[in-house]
Amino acid sequence: MWKGRHTHTLQREFCKRVSRANRILAFVRQITKGLRFLFSASGSLPLPLRLYLLRSVCGQEEMAAGETQLYAKVTSKLKGRSSSALLEPLLDMGFPAHTALKALAATGRKTVEEASDWLRCHCNDPSLDDPIPQEYALFLCPTGPLLDKLQEFWRESKRQCAKNRAHEVFPHITLCDFFTCEDQKVECLYEALKRAGDRSLGTFPAAVPLVLHSSVSYLGFFVDDGPADIIREFAVMFATEASVLADCTVKPCTKQLHLTLAHKFYPHHQRTLEQLARAVHPGHSCQWTAALYSRDMRFVHYQTLRVLFQYKPQNVDELTLSLGDYIFVDPTQQEEASEGWVIGISQRTGCRGFLPENYTERASECDTWVKHRTYTFSRALDPGSRKDEASSRRNGEPHAPHMSRSASSLQSLQASILRRGVLVVRHGERVDQVFGKSWLQQCSTPDGKYYRPDLNFPRGLPRRSNGIKDFESDPPLSSCGIFQSRMAGEALLESGTSITSVFTSPALRCVQTAKHILEELKLEKKVKIRVEPGIFEWTKWEAGKTTPTLMTLEELKEANFNVSMDYRSPFWACASAKKTKRKGSGSW
Predict the structure, then answer these.
(1) Where is 3: in which H helix or E strand?
(2) Same structural domain for residues 50 and 195?
(3) Are 506 and 550 in contact (CB under 8 A)?
(4) Which stretch of DSSP H or E encloses residue 307?
(5) Which ranges of 164-298 does DSSP label H, i.e. alpha helix?
(6) Which residues, 6 or more positions from 545, have their beta carbon under 8 angstroms from its beta carbon?
(7) In this prediction, what percent of the chain has a pLDDT beyond 70?
(8) Quick one: pLDDT at residue 211?
(9) Which of 56, 183, 201, 356 has a CA-to-CA distance to 415 between 20 and 30 Å?
(10) Which residues fall in a compositionally biased region of kind Basic and acidic residues (predicted)?
């Protein structure tokens, strides 16, 4: 009996040593790969980053001697927190320590589930083992009624005056520049924030006076000198604590503290922006919160795209897209991409590939930032709640972790039902694009009758008062163009898109496209096509100077197009009024 129990103990000890040996071997491989990456990329990386990577790789040589020491130092400094509570479960799942720490840093060290999901999504990420840390920054963020007013200003200024640089980030006051921190020392930053906050809590101003300032390219609130000095002292304390605890070089903000409302906008929008800003009263109730955010330092100068539609790759070099994904795109590295496509890197998977650009929209710079921890300057909070004050929100938006998927889907469905928008559609393939400018000579007899010389020519042409010659400058869709239009209508039908009004250019190809889309939507009898001359394309690029002769409403009606005979274009009505005025009085 004793012998069997002793054998079991030896076996367990043997398994532990084998597991540890495997981990050490994995780190040795990591060191080799890191050095290989460092030397291969040294020509394209700035010197500070190369030096940082070299220190990181050399540091991992020490880690290989005892992997568990990666987080032992952190645990000893933070007596109230257990770093191993998040790391140990990931190690038990078989993830190497360096990638587990990387996942925890990338997800804000919130839960084991988020970190493990991140690791599974990044299983094919070629940069997973690269020793590149996150960048961190500390911001002072408003909350409560003042934040509500600022967010309303953000929405209205974007709607009335277009997007400017301020819309890239949430309302904030910058306390320090972005800095790097090694993944295994991130939790030390949290302790640095807490210590600096506790030391500043007694002197932090109950209200932060804000003064509106405006110029031709900037609009924002400046902080008065007295409170600004206290806030700067807090930033210096954080920088000092971060240097001691996490070995980070933090540069506190030395400029005049400010909260930007608009930046690099068009000069003619200045007055409108000032009027909107006056509705934001600085005296609104507010609790200020110091928030620690991180971002991926590799994509600082990239464009950020948000995925609107799912996409399944048709080729091995294309990305899989899921609704809500974020894609990083380098505008300077798009030579290999054809028109309508871009090359990007998925934030969700870390993989690089081609994707259709019209499946995405421009996102804000801060949409991919991760909020780690916050410190609220309120004496009403008890020390126990401060000890674990950790936001589960990203970018200022509340996150409800217990909300069910079905409830979330229902809310998304309701939002999509209530949302209204304009769907802009380009016409399908036209015959002159396929058969050239002389297409009409290929399909007409000497006596002016149409015949079909190729299956991609339409089956027939509608009757026009001036005969077939007018089609030369107003060509119809090809057979493929008709098929494309029907496919677009079918896709809209399957997506559940509701169409209430249709406006189209008077060009025949556009009217045909609208007709075939409505037919697939089963709306050809219910929704009339409104012919709008004001959206007809600009023809100055054409070699000929002749304005195209377009089909009249009567001719379109006779050709079985369900056009509205009552609709009158505001553009055309204005032009007619001007002509009448000139005839009546000789001037306008």
Answers:
(1) helix 2-41
(2) no
(3) yes
(4) strand 303-307
(5) 186-200, 225-246, 270-278
(6) none
(7) 74
(8) 94
(9) 356
(10) 384-400
Rounded Cα distance, 483 and 428, in Å:
8
The token duo for 555 is 């001719």
pLDDT confidence of residue 401: 38
Residues 252 and 382 occupy one common structural domain: yes
CATH number of the CATH domain containing 472 = 3.40.50.1240
**Residue 79 tokens, joined:** 């007596």
Residue 12 phi/psi, 5° resolution? -65, -40
Order the strands of the 360-362 sheet from edge to edge: 352-356, 341-346, 326-329, 303-307, 360-362
Residue 365 contacts residue 304 (beta carbons within 8 Å): yes
Taking only the tens place, the pLDDT of each residue in 471-496 is 988 899 999 999 999 999 999 988 88
**pLDDT surpassing 80 at residue 428:** yes
Classify residue 538 as exposed, middle or buried by CB count within 10 Å of its CB (0-12, 13-18, 19+): exposed
- Tell me the C-alpha distance between 471 and 458, whole Å: 12
The predicted-structure confidence for 264-323, as pLDDT tens digits, reads as follows: 999 999 999 999 999 998 888 899 999 999 999 999 999 999 999 999 999 999 999 999
Q: Please say whether the beta carbons of 37 and 130 come within 8 A.
A: yes
**Per-residue H/E/C for 384-451:** HHHHCCCCCCECCECCCCCCCHHHHHHHHHHHHHHCCCCCCCCCCCEHHHHHCCCHHHHCECCCCCEC
For the chain, helix, strand, coil in percent to 5 are: 45, 15, 40
Tokens matching residue 510: 């556009």
What is the number of domains present in the chain? Answer: 3
